[in-house]
Structure prediction request, 762 residues.
Amino acid sequence: MARELKVQDSDDHLEVSPPLHSAAGVPAVTRAMRMAMKQMGPTRSGRTLLRLNQPGGFDCPGCAWPDPGHTHAAEFCENGVKAVAEEATTRRVTPEFFAKHSIEELRGRTDYWLGQQGRLTTPMHKAPGDTHYRPVSWDAALDIVAGHLRGLSDPDEAVFYTSGRTSNEAAFCYQLFARAYGTNNMPDCSNMCHESSGTALTESIGIGKGTVTLTDVENAELLVVAGQNPGTNHPRMLSALEAAKKRGARIVAINPLPEAGLIKFRNPQTPRGVIGPGTPLADLYLQVRLGGDQALFQALGHLLLQRPDVLDKDFISQHTSGFEEYAASLATLDWDATARATGLQRSEIEALADEFARSRATTICWAMGLTQHRHAVATIQDVVDVLLLQGNIGKPGAGVCPVRGHSNVQGDRTMGVWEKPGEKFLQALDDEFAITAPREHGYDVVDAVRAFRDGHAKVFMAVGGNFVRATSDTDVTAASLEKAALTVHVSTKLNGSHAVTGDEALILPTIGRTEEDLQVSGAQRVSVEDSMSMVHASQGRLRPADPTLLSEVAIICELARKTLPDSTIDWPAMRGDYRVIRSHIAAVVPGFEHFETRLERPGGFLLPSPPRDERRFETQSGKATFTTHEMWAPDCPPGHLLLQTVRSHDQYNTTIYGMDDHYRGIKDGRRVVFVNPDDLAELGLHDEQIVDIVSVWRGAAGADEVEERRADRFRIVSYPTARSCAAAYFPETNVLVPLDSTAKRSNTPTSKTVVVRLEPST
Ligand SMILES: Nc1nc2c(c(=O)[nH]1)N[C@H]1C(S)=C(S)[C@@H](COP(=O)(O)OP(=O)(O)OC[C@H]3O[C@@H](n4cnc5c(=O)[nH]c(N)nc54)[C@H](O)[C@@H]3O)O[C@H]1N2
Ligand SMILES: Nc1nc2c(c(=O)[nH]1)N[C@H]1C(S)=C(S)[C@@H](COP(=O)(O)OP(=O)(O)OC[C@H]3O[C@@H](n4cnc5c(=O)[nH]c(N)nc54)[C@H](O)[C@@H]3O)O[C@H]1N2
Ligand SMILES: [Mo]
Prediction:
């Protein structure tokens, strides 16, 4: 078991070929199956994959795209298979592994190498001053955490992070524990992800979630996909785009990169996709400059306002506020500024306006390409404004569709994992459990790093995720976490964050989605919420990676019991039977009435959405709100480029499945930077050259002093991206993103605009 695994971990064999123009198809699933066999072997692969996204099976730990009624016999995609294989692997990380590798040594390893070692099996403890993790009993491990928490002078010195894999049940217990303990310090991966969408939508339409269902996507007349790469990150979305296309929908892609999955889809589940030519997707492909979407949507608003015949005047007068001001702000447009910001021709923007004018039902989907910019919140509100002009909210085929990342990131928020909980939620929690939850807002991700850096926080606990590698400014984040008195990670797999420890540290291994969760009352199911507010059950059947593993719920409830001995909350009852947790959720969270029985329905149930269901907007004005913003776009000084940090096809955030980025033509390497050939010529650089990427940052207020950060030795790949824009993979490039470079109001790191220059490596 403890045999060393050889993992190729360098770019020595990097090969580059031209990018592809279509996505998916049989080769994709074949590639993924090969990966599954390598991790699980044939019998386990078959047994596991057949239960993916099936009634009575488990929810795919891949992305948050909904399942079409849980009916297809093989409702999985290439990346779902990879995500399952990564978790259901037969490889194991045992105490002998930790005896052999010091923490210092693990710190030098990539997340790929760490992840390939397999599943964690044993609670591990690093004592103060020690160089290695050593095995520890569950009881002793949880006593250590409880001891630290009880010893803090203020509950706000503890920080409780969550990644969006956590089930509703675990998330609910976790936030209850944090609040019963006395803090709202609950940063989560959302802070780095769709926080900008939540902030923008709550103000504009009164709810921080999308307003469409899968049926709406399939019935839209116009589908806009902006700042999203579904071919890699939400492959099952391509089936919905294909279905829409077959019904005559038009599709517009807005993206600086020509992403294969937006150009053409070869569906592995239809004959046409297997042997035929596939379905062309985007009718219009706008290669916008990074951060140019706000200018684009304002120009679109301007053009639509010139055509009163295409506006929905009844909707505007009955259901919206702020129209006059919005219309006045876009009565004229500076086309030169628009061209500079978007990098697009006026005729391209006019073509986009024609698409909108023709459509009676428009849905706009987006992901990280819109949310991770300084002006992300304003940009998303400008997107909503355009939809409001034509009444495209709360009617079939129309609405906003922020496509979520982690499979239960939306559910975790619904369960109260949030550093800024609302009064209504806290009041319901207080009533149900006879506690007084703290009212003061807590730290989000970036503020949590600052709190450790400045000595205000002392204990860091994470349920899932890879905080140090996923957060911006890796070196600053790592140095801050190292100041903690205790760091605790509840994890399935080893990752870079485990090698960045506080004075004392713990790794608590846990079971995953694919595995059976046995408690005193029997096998438990859990629930999750997808990107379109469908809640459904998930139940794993595989034997856990190790018989001693505890579930996330068990770890949290036992820790709560030890930390809060006087608590009147019955933690053991919740741990023993998750139905008890669900009955509390039903009492606290609106929309979860009769939770247990509604969970029986195959495919689950839909949570209410006032804008979608009844065009009701719970905003300040009681109406959907047009917002007016001054146009802004990132500045790119001469000799520099705007860098976006993206995912390759072979990774799940910081989990690296392999070293290829198939659709973009990259094989066996990750340290590449994609640059437009014309920019290369202008900068005096060339394809295949090895360069250091240097980010330059003047501070949020444009300070005089320039801060520089460096990532060494990337190979230039000449690539047809938008002008003055570059792209490279995260987490490697997170060292370049300054901690203080965040979106206004949502505080999300600006991972999609980093001003950089490229220097030939020495
Ligand atoms: N296989 C796989 N699936 C995943 C993930 C994964 O890592 N692997 N991650 C999950 C998570 S947590 C998330 S949040 C989602 C992320 O899903 P995506 O948002 O698709 O992920 P990114 O790779 O960050 O891609 C951003 C896309 O936006 C484009 N873009 C960047 N900047 C701009 C801009 O300024 N304007 C416009 N219009 N486009 C821009 C990029 O070119 C790219 O196509 O995927 C989820 N699903
Ligand atoms: N530069 C840059 N940085 C980014 C982004 C970007 O686009 N660019 N994207 C951001 C986004 S959108 C997101 S969502 C964040 C992601 O941030 P995180 O969610 O923190 O990171 P992940 O890489 O998804 O976490 C992977 C780890 O989760 C653990 N894990 C997996 N499954 C389970 C489980 O079932 N239970 C438990 N307890 N642990 C589990 C494993 O140990 C694994 O190593 O990263 C952000 N960081
Ligand atoms: Mo995400």
Remarks:
- The chain has 32 helices and 33 strands.
